[in-house]
Fold each of these.
Amino acid sequence: MKIKLIIFLIGIIPISVRKLIAFFIAKLFYYLSLKHRLIAIHNLMRSFPDKSLEEIIGIAKESYLSVALVLVEFYDIPSLNKDNLNQLLTIRGLDNYTNACNEGKGVLLFGAHFGNWEIGNAALAILTRPLSFVYRILDSRLLEGIITTVRASCGNTSLPKENAMRQMIRLLKQDNTISILIDQNVAWYGGVFVDFFGRKACTTSGLALLAMHTQAPVLPFFTSRLPDGKYLLEIGGKVEIISSENHEADILINTQNFTKIIEEHIRQYPEQWFWVHQRWKTKLCQVKQRG
């Protein structure tokens, strides 16, 4: 009851006011945390060596604002429906998704902490069918309750990523859709190193393993924020999955292909990605030393 009351009270605040709050939150966090500000600027400088420092700082600031907007717009999700969704979002490539659903093997959607992935998940559930979103459980029980409740308002379920492989295989066998974000750093034992903006980034191998094991179609999925504040939900075509007798090589190639698609999309709208994340924290040299 308390969680639903919080969601309701925040939701009735006009979105214009919430966006103003998001602007101040972004400014506050950008200037208060020198460590995270430097991480964002360093990541951007390494990823876009041709851009000036002024451009880099501008993208970093916009990146903070993008995350803040995800937070304040999150509370609009319970009020979304088929009648008002077109006021917020345009969808492109829906036929790619419906064709994948018709295969009857379940569907794997992948994307990044980019634009507003939460609204994208909600919109797809409203327009087609609910999905399971793979995520990391939050430390705060209150925030955890709020987030899972909001996601459930449109039928989506939150699937904790810890030890989730068996459950994901089961869901796919039952012809369900799984949405997973694969753009964050993982420990050396949980992924493979692939090229991402010219540097080796340790990336989860879970999506490749699932795709190879279940033969479920894999589609890229991005929700980009447009200049007018609305969103463009894009669902790409089915990604070819490499499957040969060399299992380890196939995992690496497939993960690289997924990551390349994510990088290409981020390059279009760099200000909408989460640059403050330590994406390249796990180093390949550390793995070699352990070996």
Note: The chain has one domain: 84-290.
Amino acid sequence: MAIEIGIIGGSGFYSLLEKPKSIGINTKYGSPSDKIHTGIISGKNVAFIPRHGSKHTYPPHKVPYKANIEALHKLGVKRIIATNAVGSLNPEFKIGQIVAFDQFVNMTSNRSDTFFEESVAHVSMADPYCSEMRKTAHESAKRMKLNYNDKGTVLVINGPRFSTRSESLFYQRQGFDLINMTQYPEVALAREKCICYLALGIVTDYDAGLIGKKNIKPVSHKEVMETFSKNIGNVKALIKNIVANTKESRKCICSNALDDAVIPV
């Protein structure tokens, strides 16, 4: 059976799958972060990859993004739901909230971020996150009465270190809402494979502090993991609801992202 949906996230998501099986896949870009677990969610075939590996061995700048996306593509995945821990740069985005990003700003460096190494393609990323999947997620979250925001601009930094106070202040003044280390190039690579991509961010901290909020302590890894763990149940329930309400047909721009993008030789 074809795998309909791929999930990229933390190891806590293994328990989502019914009748899970693990499979090893090699790609021309190397091995993915870990073995891929396949199973069933809401009656649909789903594949799961732990982005950092099952033992969290890959830091953000060394995640094998291309191998992960290629492996899901080889399985026939047409839609990806990704989960991310994010810091808030905007007081409107509060700790514990779930956010479906609508835009990203890339400030990473030295990451292999395209499959088009031997040919030329200019793929549109004006709207990088799938509009159909974001709509389904919004409707699911509304039914579930979750603390949810259906849009937000996420800034992607290289990591693995956190921001200085000056950097965080600069990012806030630019008007960015959230900060993360792994959204890029994952979302861009999915678009190059014509895969619909939805990213759900869990707000875990306020980075190095917010403008005008002197009582906020700088983020720590311990804080991130504790907040993520507290809210993982809501995210799992939301993903199940999204999968259950995802239609088979696609009418979004993701499915034909390469139309007129590849330069003929």
Note: Residues 221-244 form the longest helix (24 residues).
